[in-house]
Every structure is written in structure tokens, then in C-alpha cells.
What we know:
The chain has about 325 residues and is an alpha/beta fold. Helices cover about 30% and strands about 25% of the residues. It has two domains: about 10-135 and about 300-325, Quinone Oxidoreductase, Chain A, domain 1 (Alpha-Beta Complex); about 145-275, NAD(P)-binding Rossmann-like Domain (Rossmann fold). It has helices at about 50-55, 90-95, 110-115, 135-155, 175-180, 195-200, 215-220, 240, 265-270, 285-295, 310-315; strands at about 10-15, 20-30, 35-45, 80-85, 100-105, 120, 125-130, 165, 185-190, 205-210, 225-230, 245-255, 275, 300-305, 325. The strands form four sheets. A six-stranded parallel beta sheet has the order 10-9-8-11-12-13. Strands 3, 4, 6, 14 and 15 form a five-stranded mixed beta sheet that branches. Strand 14, helix 11 and strand 15 form a beta-alpha-beta unit. Helix 4 packs across helix 5 (about 175-180) and helix 4 crosses helix 10 (about 285-295). It starts with 8 loop residues before the first strand and ends with a strand.
Amino acid sequence: MPSAPHPDTYKAYAFLEKGGDLKPIDVTWRDPQSGEIVVKVLACGVCARHVLVVLEAPLYSNCFFPFRDVPSCPGSRDHRRRRRYTGDREDLEGRTTRRRRLARWALLDMLWLSGRQFLPVLLPTAVASVPDDIDPAEVAPLMCAGVSVYTALRDMNAHAPDVIGIHGMGGLGHLAVQFAKAMGFRPVVLSSTSEKEELAFKFGAYKFLDGSKVNQAEELAKLGGAKVILCLAPDDNVVQSLVNGLAPGGEFFILAVSQGGTVPLGLFVGKRLNLRTGGAGTAKEEEETIDFVGAHDIKVLVNKFPLAEAQKAYEHRSAARFRSVIIP
């Protein structure tokens, strides 16, 4: 079935060479096939994981980069963005008046890595539903960082009011503190400086431990030990340095991947500790995350960039305190 009126081409940004910058390209419109939907981008987040794309380009450049500047055009393959259906709106929106269907990410890697490049379509199974009254720029990080933290806290072996260590106070960390507080835990922020101490307490931190001033593991032990430590900032030595701060039977949950590091297996065995990893969740879990944020008035902090500054937004990701989001 032909799609609604649309331009013949639309703008995107792509990594065209290994180690290169994001470059603007024109993409030819393709009508959706049976079982596919057309979407458009309202906001597009930037994740540290995108570094992998830069390092492997042009291997991945055909399946990546996501940033589109025509509001009526289809949305991106990139998995952390809010997208709205544009097509059979009566069928999709007739099922609910409060929510629209928005794209999610977990199934998209296989879809695009199978050779379908820059396609302006998605599978209906690759969407989540969000309320209309939420700022798209704030939804974008919830579909990556937000759901990662939410599912980690929800599924971990802890019960309120257990102490939860939160290593890192950036894009994931500022959400983790608020989520943990709302769930009844006692979030203890573990930071390398005191720069974000005021912000941590504003968001509900129970304690703030500056690693440049105190031994964080010892301070956690004085509190009875953390039931869980969430590692939300890349650090090769994080497990080694903080493991003694876990309570017996505790969990070390890694959501930020570093390039190396060691795990003291003797301590893990002796204290019956667990090492877990995780990532973004399913469409249903993304919907639960967004609903949880709305129910508890959780604040999502982002840095906004126009599409023309896509490369600047990407460069900003490593130095930014919070998630960069590109607004078409």
C-alpha cells in the first residue's frame, strides 16, 4: 500500500569512515512493505555505545546513523529515540487515546545489521507506547539509560530500605538515584569528586561518598554494606576497589563497560557475591519505565542539540554530565 505524501529524499547523518565524523547524507524514501511501519524522529539521543560504530565504520555505517531532519520523514534505526507512527494512524491510535506507539531498540540491531540500510521503516514489534504529554527529548534517554537502570533496580536481589551504591552520577546515575529513592532504597552515590554532591542530594541521595576524600568501600561497610552496587560509569578498577563495600550475598551490577579490569573471585566466593550485567529492556519494560517516571515526578536532564550539530552532540557525550539529545 502506498504511504502518505512524503518527500523523495530526507536528511540523515552517518559515520562514513572508520574514526571519522558524522556526515550529512541524503537518503531515498522507501515505502514500507507488509508488516512494516513508517515513523518519524522527534528526538534522538547519543550514547557512549556509538563509539563502537565509529571504530568499525564503514562496516556499520550502512546500518547506522539515525539523525533525520524532516519531521514528516520516517524515524531512525537508532534505538534510543522517540518516534511516532505516521501511516495508518486510525488503526494504531484507535486503540488508545492517551498514548502513541514509539520505536524501541532491542530488535533493531538484527533488522539493520542484516543489510537493510537507512530504511525509514520499523517492525511493529519494535515499538513502545508513551504518553503524548512528555517532552520527546526527555523520553529519548528513558528508552536506553532509563530502562537499563529501572530494570536493574527492579530485578536485583534487594528490598527497601537496603543500601544501594550508585557509581557514577551522569546520564544513568541521576536517574538511578531518583529511581532507587522512589522504590524505597537508600541510594549512596559513589563519585570521584565532590562536583555533583549538591545535585545528588537534590535528587534524593542518602549519602554522597567522594572517592578523593574517603575510602568508599569502607564507608559502605560502616553502613552495613551495600546490597547492590550499580556501576554506571566506565572504570577498569571499579570492581576491585568497591567489592569490599558489598554486604554478604550482595550484587555488583555493571551497566557501563570498560576496556579491562579484574574481578577478585576469592572475595566473590567467600562472601557469596554475585556479578551481573544488563542493558536496555523490552518494549513493555520501556513503557513501565516511562510510567514510573511520570508517577514519581522523576526529572530527566538532557543537553539538546539541533540536527546540524550532530557531530558536536556526539563529541559532547564523553564530557557531558547528562545525555545529549538531537532535536530535528
